[in-house]
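Listing S7. Sequence submitted for prediction.
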Amino acid sequence: MTVDLQKARHEWFQTLQPLRPEEIVGLWRGVGIPSDHPLDGVLENLQWFGKRFHANLRADALLFQWRPGRLVAINPAYLPIAMVIRFAWFGRTAIARNWFSHLQKVVRARAPTATLMPRMTDFGETAAMIYDNQPITDYLRRIDEREIAGMMCVAGDDRRYFFRLRKVDPPERKVLSWPKVPS
């Protein structure tokens, strides 16, 4: 692990504007930010889509692309984070991607798996997503009007996983109208 890259990412994250939980309701597409964390590249390899934040401040913490146009929320409780980090190298393989595509049906969430709330950090209060059954908190800060950054913190681990989320616009609903019939 390069301490310098972790430190640089952390310093960058601190410069971003804080968020309130209600500001981020909606669907967000994610991508990891390289930071020499063991999980760098793992989520992308497994077809991670991003996160969905609901108006009641509950969240689908892990959304994956199952098929084109089909998202699956995964229940993180089935994936012990210490084991996931320990075997992260495997998560970047084609075999893992194939297995995970089949396991998604088994580990899918039946309801939201995290809660949004304001949380204090060493650089002020901001929105945070606290996982229900894992020792994980994702702190969230604003990059711009359409993009936010996340810093995943696992209790007992000083390394941080960084990611970006970009707001997904809801699909436009086309209003169909019948052609006018001459009278």
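Caption to Listing S7: primary sequence and predicted structure tokens for the chain studied. The mean pLDDT is 92. The longest helix spans residues 94-107.
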